[in-house]
Design goal:
- This protein has helices at 25-31, 39-60, 63-79, 81-84, 90-112, 121-138, 150-157, 161-172, 177-184, 188-205.
- It is mostly helical.
């Protein structure tokens, strides 16, 4: 049985460790065979469970829902690990899977609460507001004329998916370029390109001048 590392929310309060049930006990029950976690999958989970949990929590606004989504993702990886390893980037595969499961959860909870089949607008709004506030703080020098994050909401909401992911992982969750690249399964230069393009899009919508020299240092 694989233990996730302790997860801390935004205020630093840690939780007890918890387990990924389907990769051992439940798989044994389903298939009648003993499931042994491959060492490379064990290492993968140890490395990425925390950032995956933090991203899911940011998007869903619910710790338990985030845990459930990530657990289902890793159950899928466990069942299909040999196939996943044939992918060009297992990290990119896992990232796509996580985003699909987060979106599915938002659609299901939105439908169950009577909001229709689209993803819950409340949760999207909260996630966008978090991203706006964090981006405002990170770009305070360039955006010092702004008194709140309200002007960033529309700009961030309009970002392409990859650029939005980079904004969330870098500015909201605080991961450096190399780690963002590892999590998303892309190259560091690609992360920097997405971040630069996102900043330029935001600056354009806000009618601000952010030059190449204004890029944040790490």
């Amino acid at each position: 049985m694989t233990n996730f590392p302790p997860y801390e929310d935004s205020d630093g309060a840690s939780e007890m460790q918890y387990t990924l049930p389907s990769t051992a006990t439940e798989l044994n029950a389903l298939h009648g065979v003993h499931y042994v976690m491959p060492p490379d999958l064990e290492a993968f989970i140890d490395l990425y469970s925390r950032p995956h949990l933090r991203y899911a929590h940011t998007m869903l606004g619910d710790k338990q829902a985030a845990k459930a989504v990530v657990q289902r993702c890793y159950s899928h990886l466990a069942l299909n690990w040999a196939v996943v390893l044939k992918e060009e980037s297992p990290e990119a595969y896992a990232w796509r899977l996580l985003k699909q499961r987060v979106e599915l959860h938002l659609r299901i909870t939105g439908s169950a609460s009577g909001r229709g089949t689209s993803a819950s607008p409340d949760m999207r709004t909260v996630a966008m507001q978090r991203a706006a506030r964090a981006t405002l703080e990170a770009l305070r020098r360039q955006l010092e004329v702004m008194e709140s994050a309200l002007g960033l909401y529309t700009a961030i909401a309009a970002l392409p998916e990859r650029q939005y992911d980079v904004i969330v992982l870098h500015y909201v969750l605080g991961y450096p370029t190399q780690q963002v690249a590892n999590i998303m399964g892309i190259k560091p230069d690609t992360v920097r390109g997405h971040r630069r393009s996102a900043r330029e899009r935001i600056a354009s919508k806000l009618r601000l001048n952010i030059t190449a020299g204004d890029e944040d240092k790490e």
